[in-house]
C-alpha cells in the first residue's frame, strides 16, 4: 500500500511539473512572440520615421509594449485552464508587507542618488553645478533659463520622481510585473532553485527588451560592439533590478511592490543627468543606474538581497 501511494504521489508530482513547464514555455512563446512582433512592426517604423510628429509618438508606442506580459499571463491562464486563484496580487502577510511597500516606493530613488553621488565623486569633472542639461532643455522649449527657473525645474522633477513616479507609472509597470514577477517567477521557482531563478528570469527579461535595445533604448546607438554590447548590458541591468523586484515579490507574495519599485526606477533613473551638461553622460558607466558606476548601489543591494533569499528563501507566500 505504501509503495502504491508513493508511486501515485510521484506520478502526480511529475504531471504537475510537466504542466508547470508547459505553462512556462507557453507564456514565454506568447509574450516574446507578441511583443517582438509588435515592436518590429509598429515601434520600429514609428521610432525611425522621418516625420517628426510620428517619431514623437515612439515613447507611447514603447509604453504599450509593457502591457504584453500581463496579457500573456491572461492568455496562458485561460489556455491551460489555470484560472486566476493564485494571481500574486494580494499580499499574503498583511501589515507585515508595509515595510516592503515603503522600500519599493522610496528605495529606487535612494539607490539612484547613491549611485549618482559615487559616479560624481569618481568623475567630478562631469558634475555641472550650473545644470547645463536643464538649461538646454528649457531653451529648447523657448524658456529663458534663469537661476530661479532652473532650480524650480530641478526640484519639481526630483520631487515628482521620488513621491509620484511609482504611482504615475503603476499602470504600465503592472503590465510587466504581473507577468515577470507575478507569473514567471513562481513558475521558475518550482523548476529550479532561488539563485538560478533570479539569474535566468533576469536574462529572459533583458532579452525581451531586445528590439527596443537595438533601437537605442537606455544605451543609445553607435557604441562599441553595437548592438550586442547594449543587449548584454540590458540583460545585466535586468538581472540586477530583477533580483530586487523578486525579493519584494517573494517576501510579500504579491507583485504590487515590484510594480511600485519598477515605476520608481523608470521615473527617477535620469535624475543624475540633471546635474550634468548633458554631453558627458555614458549610459554604460553613469550617472544613470544603467551604468556600472551609476548602478553600483543597485548592484550591491541586489547582491545582498540574493544572499538573503538563498539563506532564507521563505517561499511560503508563493503559490
Blueprint (SSEs and pairs):
Elements: H1 2-47, H2 52-55, H3 58-65, H4 68-79, H5 98-122, H6 132-140, H7 147-168, H8 170-191, H9 194-208, H10 210-214, H11 228-252, H12 256-268, H13 296-311
Helix pairs in contact: 1-3, 1-4, 1-8, 4-8, 5-7, 5-11, 5-12, 5-13, 7-12, 8-9, 8-12, 9-11, 11-12, 11-13
Q: Would you tell me the overall average pLDDT?
A: 95
Secondary-structure element order, N to C: HHHHHHHHHHHHH
Number of helices: 13
Distance between the termini: 30 Å
DSSP, total strands: 0
Weakly predicted, low-confidence segments: none
Radius of gyration (CA) equals 21 Å
Question: What kind of oligomer do you see?
Answer: single chain
Percent in strands:
under 5%
Tell me the structural class.
mainly alpha
Reported for the largest beta sheet, the result is: none
Shape: globular
Helical coverage, percent range: 55-70%
Tell me what you see in this structure:
This protein is mostly helical. Helix content is about 70%, strand content about 0%. It has 13 helices and no strands. The radius of gyration is 21 Å and the shape is globular. The two termini are about 30 Å apart. The mean pLDDT is about 95.
Notable traits:
0% strand; mainly alpha; 319 residues
Quick structural gist:
By secondary structure, this protein is an all-alpha fold. It has helices at residues 2-47, 52-55, 58-65, 68-79, 98-122, 132-140, 147-168, 170-191, 194-208, 210-214, 228-252, 256-268, 296-311. Helix 7 (147-168) runs antiparallel to helix 12 (256-268).
Amino acid at each position: 500500500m505504501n509503495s502504491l501511494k508513493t508511486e501515485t504521489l510521484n506520478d502526480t508530482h511529475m504531471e504537475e511539473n510537466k504542466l508547470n513547464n508547459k505553462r512556462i514555455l507557453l507564456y514565454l512563446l506568447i509574450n516574446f512572440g507578441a511583443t517582438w512582433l509588435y515592436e518590429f512592426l509598429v515601434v520600429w517604423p514609428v521610432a525611425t520615421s522621418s516625420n517628426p510628429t510620428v517619431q514623437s509618438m515612439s515613447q507611447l508606442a514603447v509604453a504599450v509594449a509593457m502591457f504584453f506580459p500581463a496579457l500573456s499571463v491572461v492568455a496562458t491562464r485561460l489556455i491551460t485552464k489555470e484560472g486566476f486563484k493564485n494571481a500574486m496580487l494580494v499580499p499574503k502577510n498583511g501589515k507585515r508587507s508595509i515595510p516592503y511597500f515603503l522600500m519599493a516606493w522610496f528605495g529606487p530613488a535612494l539607490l539612484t542618488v547613491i549611485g549618482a553621488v559615487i559616479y560624481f565623486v569618481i568623475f567630478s569633472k562631469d558634475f555641472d553645478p550650473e545644470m547645463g542639461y536643464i538649461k538646454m532643455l528649457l531653451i529648447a522649449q523657448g524658456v529663458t533659463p534663469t537661476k530661479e527657473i532652473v532650480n524650480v525645474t530641478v526640484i519639481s522633477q526630483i520631487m515628482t520622481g521620488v513621491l509620484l513616479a511609482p504611482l504615475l507609472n503603476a499602470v504600465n509597470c503592472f503590465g510587466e510585473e504581473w507577468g515577470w514577477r507575478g507569473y514567471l517567477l513562481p513558475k521558475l521557482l518550482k523548476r529550479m532553485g532561488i539563485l538560478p531563478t533570479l539569474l535566468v528570469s533576469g536574462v529572459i527579461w533583458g532579452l525581451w527588451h531586445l528590439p527596443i535595445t537595438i533601437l537605442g533604448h537606455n544605451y543609445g546607438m553607435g557604441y562599441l560592439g553595437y548592438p550586442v554590447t547594449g543587449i548584454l548590458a540590458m540583460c545585466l541591468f535586468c538581472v540586477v533590478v530583477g533580483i530586487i523586484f523578486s525579493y519584494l515579490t517573494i517576501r510579500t507574495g504579491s507583485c504590487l511592490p515590484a510594480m511600485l519599485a519598477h515605476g520608481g526606477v523608470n521615473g527617477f533613473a535620469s535624475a543624475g543627468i540633471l546635474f550634468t551638461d548633458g554631453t558627458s553622460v555614458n549610459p554604460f558607466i553613469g550617472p544613470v543606474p544603467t551604468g556600472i558606476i551609476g548602478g553600483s548601489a543597485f548592484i550591491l543591494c541586489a547582491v545582498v538581497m540574493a544572499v538573503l533569499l538563498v539563506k532564507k528563501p521563505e517561499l511560503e507566500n508563493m503559490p
